[in-house]
Design goal:
Length: 408
C-alpha cells in the first residue's frame, strides 16, 4: 500500500479520477484543499487561508505574497497531518496558487510530483497575444515574470511531474523539463459520446432543439476574451444573417477565470451584448449559463457546429469532450488546439482573429453537414484512441503517481 497526498486548491480539480482509482486499488489517499468535493475512498480535508493584515502596496509583489500565504496555510494543514502520524510516500500537487511551496519542508523524503498546467512567458503564449487587450507598460512584464516565482520553487523541489499536452510541457523551463512527463487528464468517451436522439428543451423561449437541427454551440467555464468570446460574439450577426434557421447555444458563467474584467466594470457578456446585441436575433441566441454535466453533454450532442477558440493557453477539457461527443469542431489555429485537431482531417481551424473566416467556415459546415460527417467520426476515433480516460490516460496517470517503470 502506498500513502498518497493530493493537494489542489479546489480538489479534485484535475486529480479526481486518478485519486479515486488509487483509492479503489487499496492505497491510502488523502486530499488537501481550501475547497474540496468528496471523492469515493479519498479522505478530503479543508483548511482556511487568512489574508495578510497589511497586504503589500506593490502590485508586482502582491501576487507572490498571496501565494506564500496560501502555501503557509497548506503547510500548517500538512503539519497537522504529520502530527497525527500520516507520512505520505507521494505528494501530487497543483503549484499554481502556492500550495506546493513548502511540501518538502514538511516531508523531505516524500516523492513530490507537480502538475505543470502552465508556465508564463512574454513570448509565444497568451501574453500580448490579443492586441485589443495588450498592455505596453513595462510593469506588465515585471508582473508576468513574478507570476512564475511559486512555480519555479515547486519545479526546483519536485522529483517529477506532468503536463497535459505537449505544448504545455514545452513551456516548462528547459532545466526542469526532462523530469516532467506528458499525460492528459482523460475523457470518459463512454459518457461523452454521440447520441442521434439527443434534444434540448429551452424553457424560456419554448424551443426544442434536437440532433440534426442547425445548432451552433459555444462552451466556456466563463465567457471571456481568453476563450475567444469577443470574437465569437462579433461573428454572430453576420453568421445568423446568413443562416436564418440557426440557433446558438452558449454555455458559461459571467465571471473571469483568466485575464481581466472589462474596463469600466460589468461582465464580458454585458459588454459584448452592448456592442453587437442590437444586430442579433435574440430569439435564436440562447445564453444557458452554467448547467449540470448531463445537460452540457446534451448540448454537445445536438450541436451541428461547435466553436472552440482560445488564446495560446491551457487546453479546455470541453474541446476534447466535444470531439468525443462527435461534434464538428471549428477551432482557433492556436496552441495547443493544433495538437488535438488536424485541420481538414478531424476538425477545422481558423485564425483566431479572422472573423470573416470563422463565419464562412461555420456556414460551410451548416450548409453541407454530410460532407463533414467523416471529420466528426475521425474526431471521435482520435479521442478514443489517444485521450480515453479508462483505457489510456488513467492507467498512465496511476503509473506516474506510483513511480512504475515505463511511465515515461
Amino acid at each position: 500500500m502506498t500513502r498518497i497526498l493530493f493537494i489542489h486548491q479546489n480538489f479534485p480539480g484535475q486529480f479526481g479520477h486518478v485519486a479515486e482509482a488509487l483509492a479503489d486499488a487499496g492505497h491510502e489517499v488523502v486530499a488537501l484543499g481550501t475547497q474540496t468535493r468528496q471523492v469515493p475512498g479519498v479522505r478530503c480535508l479543508g483548511y482556511a487561508v487568512r489574508a495578510p493584515a497589511q497586504p503589500s502596496q506593490d502590485e508586482a509583489v502582491r501576487d507572490f505574497e498571496t501565494k506564500v500565504v496560501r502555501g503557509l496555510a497548506c503547510a500548517r494543514a500538512m503539519e497537522r497531518l504529520r502530527a497525527e502520524g500520516f507520512v505520505p510516500d507521494v505528494i501530487v500537487a497543483h503549484p499554481g496558487w502556492g500550495e506546493a511551496l513548502f511540501c518538502k519542508d514538511i516531508w523531505p523524503q516524500a516523492r513530490l510530483l507537480v502538475f505543470a498546467e502552465f508556465f508564463y512567458g512574454a513570448e509565444g503564449s497568451d501574453f500580448g497575444f490579443d492586441p485589443e487587450f495588450a498592455s505596453p507598460h513595462p510593469a506588465a512584464l515585471h508582473r508576468l515574470r513574478l507570476k512564475n516565482t511559486a512555480l519555479l520553487h515547486a519545479y526546483a523541489a519536485a522529483d517529477g511531474g506532468y503536463a497535459p499536452t505537449v505544448w504545455q510541457h514545452s513551456r516548462i523551463p528547459a532545466e526542469y523539463r526532462a523530469r516532467f512527463d506528458v499525460a492528459f487528464d482523460g475523457i470518459d468517451t463512454l459518457v461523452a459520446s454521440p447520441d442521434a436522439a439527443a434534444w434540448v428543451q429551452l424553457r424560456r423561449k419554448g424551443a426544442r432543439l434536437a440532433a440534426g437541427d442547425e445548432v451552433i454551440t459555444f462552451v466556456n467555464r466563463n465567457l471571456e476574451p481568453y476563450r475567444g468570446f469577443h470574437i465569437f460574439m462579433r461573428a454572430l450577426p453576420e453568421l445568423l444573417r446568413r443562416r436564418p434557421n440557426a440557433h446558438v447555444l452558449i454555455l458559461g458563467g459571467n465571471d473571469v477565470s483568466y485575464g481581466a474584467k472589462p474596463a469600466g466594470g460589468g461582465t464580458w457578456r454585458e459588454k459584448l451584448l452592448a456592442e453587437v446585441g442590437a444586430a442579433l436575433p435574440s430569439a435564436r441566441v440562447h445564453f444557458l449559463g452554467r448547467v449540470p454535466y448531463a445537460d452540457y453533454l446534451r448540448v454537445l450532442q445536438v450541436s451541428a457546429c461547435h466553436v472552440y477558440l482560445t488564446y495560446p493557453f491551457v487546453l479546455s477539457w470541453s474541446c476534447v469532450e466535444a470531439m468525443s461527443a462527435g461534434c464538428m469542431v471549428v477551432g482557433s489555429r492556436t496552441a495547443p488546439v493544433q495538437e488535438v485537431i488536424d485541420h481538414g482531417q478531424d476538425g477545422l481551424l481558423v485564425d483566431f482573429f479572422n472573423i470573416p473566416a470563422l463565419v464562412q467556415q461555420v456556414c460551410d459546415v451548416l450548409e453541407d453537414p454530410k460532407k463533414y460527417l467523416p471529420l466528426r467520426q475521425r474526431a471521435r476515433v482520435k479521442v478514443v484512441e489517444r485521450y480515453d480516460l479508462r483505457s489510456r490516460c488513467l492507467p498512465r496517470l496511476v503509473d506516474l503517481v506510483l513511480g512504475k517503470q515505463g511511465a515515461n
